[in-house]
Structure formats: structure tokens, C-alpha cells
Design brief:
The complex is a heterodimer of chains A (112) and B (116). Chain A has 112 residues and is mostly beta strands. Helices cover 0% and strands 57% of the residues of chain A. In chain A, the strands form two sheets. In chain A, strands 2, 4, 5, 9, 10 and 11 form a six-stranded mixed β-sheet that branches. In chain A, strands 1-3-8-7-6 form a five-stranded antiparallel β-sheet, with no helix packed on it. Chain A is globular. Classes of the chains: A mainly beta (112), B mainly beta (116).
């Protein structure tokens, strides 16, 4: 059964710092991997989706990479801002299932 | 404005009561999903529906029921059989194309259910 892990569970950084969030998954047979942002008490907003044939996707200050063979993805945030403070979740779409499998998230705090 | 709406935002339930959470989408998506989120945890799938009048159990379906009579609506009932229903409930939808590369899920704002 696919398992998704995100470490650390929480991270605090000063404003302006570049940072990396990590996501690992146990089964490399996936269709895609997606990064979401969740603000407190809100729903999820999709940030980036990487197909299994791709190695990275970029959107503004965000860059997500995917290494299927090692079961890892990273979300790179450049020049962090207080508005980036939120919980970031990754999710994979296994080939063996129709639904997404989510990690438990990394709670990011960017200090002004 | 296209999107997914969930109501109510907050819901309180007494022990032994059934409650129904609403989820509506106007994105013309075929697939809809219900997730449960507990503090510090990821989302767990309760039920999903690929087309109207069809739905499948997810990982934690016990104590929940759904219906899909219309494409745009996928209500979730939390029954008295669910022993620990206090959680944040999220509804999502996707195109539901046979091709999984199109399967980005779009989420509603959530309903927070508290058992008194």
C-alpha cells in the first residue's frame, strides 16, 4: 500500500530565505504527484502537478522536482515571504488506485 | 464564478444524530470525492464517485453514506455509527477523464464538524 511521508512536520524560517520541503513515497508506480497549499481552516489549493514522465515543474517562486526511482519529491520556495506561511501537502496518484494518497503535511511559518 | 461550495462551514452534532454535509460544484466535473482531515494528519478518502448514480468506498467509509443523484451534488451523511466524527471534512472534484494525467482535484473550503 502506498505511503507518503513529509518531514519535517513544521518549519520556521526568516523572511527572504530559500527553503526546501520534502516528500517521500514508498511505491514508485505513480501517475503523478501534486503539491497543495492549505491555509488554516481552509480547503486545499493546488500549486503544482508533476506527471510521472516529468522531472520538475515551475510556477513563479515555486519549483517542484520528482525522482520516481528514489521515491522523492521536493518543493523549493525561493525568497520566502510571510504570505507563504501555510501547510504544504503532497499527494501521489498511484497506478493501482483511482484516488490520491496524501502526506500529513509540513506547516511552514515565515517570520517577518 | 466556477468552483466548489460546501455548507455549512461549521456544524455541531449531538451524540446519536445523523447530519448531512453539502457539496456542490459548477465545474461540470464528473468525479467527486469526500475526505476527512484530523489535526496534524493528511487527508483520508471516505467515498468517491466517478459518475452520477455510482460511488465507491474509500479507506474509511464506515459510519458514512453518500448519494450522487445529480452531477453537481455529492452530499455526505455522517451517521450515528461513526464513533469519532469530529473532524474537518473536505469535498473535491475532478474532470474524471479516463486519462489520469487530467486528474487534478479541486477542493471546496471545508466543513468543520464537532460532536457535542
Amino acid at each position: 500500500k502506498q505511503e507518503v511521508t513529509q518531514i519535517p512536520a513544521a518549519l520556521s524560517v526568516p523572511e527572504g530565505e530559500n527553503l526546501v520541503l520534502n516528500c517521500s513515497f514508498t511505491d514508485s508506480a505513480i501517475y503523478n504527484l501534486q503539491w497543495f497549499r492549505q491555509d488554516p481552516g481552509k480547503g486545499l489549493t493546488s500549486l503544482l502537478l508533476i506527471q510521472s514522465s516529468q522531472r520538475e515543474q515551475t510556477s513563479g517562486r515555486l519549483n517542484a522536482s520528482l525522482d520516481k526511482s528514489s521515491g522523492r519529491s521536493t518543493l523549493y520556495i525561493a525568497a520566502s515571504q510571510p504570505g507563504d506561511s501555510a501547510t504544504y501537502l503532497c499527494a501521489v496518484r498511484p497506478r493501482s488506485a483511482r484516488q490520491l494518497t496524501f502526506g500529513s503535511g509540513t506547516q511552514l511559518t515565515v517570520l517577518p | 464564478d466556477g468552483g466548489i461550495t460546501q455548507s455549512p462551514k461549521y456544524l455541531f452534532r449531538k451524540e446519536g444524530q445523523n447530519v448531512t454535509l453539502s457539496c456542490e460544484q459548477n465545474l461540470n466535473h464528473d468525479a467527486m470525492y469526500w475526505y476527512r482531515q484530523d489535526p496534524g494528519q493528511g487527508l483520508r478518502l471516505i467515498y468517491y464517485s466517478q459518475i452520477v448514480n455510482d460511488f465507491q468506498k474509500g479507506d474509511i467509509a464506515e459510519g458514512y453514506s453518500v448519494s450522487r443523484e445529480k452531477k453537481e451534488s455529492f452530499p455526505l451523511t455522517v451517521t450515528s455509527a461513526q464513533k469519532n466524527p469530529t473532524a474537518f471534512y473536505l469535498c473535491a472534484s475532478s474532470i474524471g477523464s479516463p486519462s489520469p494525467v487530467e486528474n487534478t482535484q479541486y477542493f471546496g473550503p471545508g466543513t468543520r464538524l464537532t460532536v457535542l
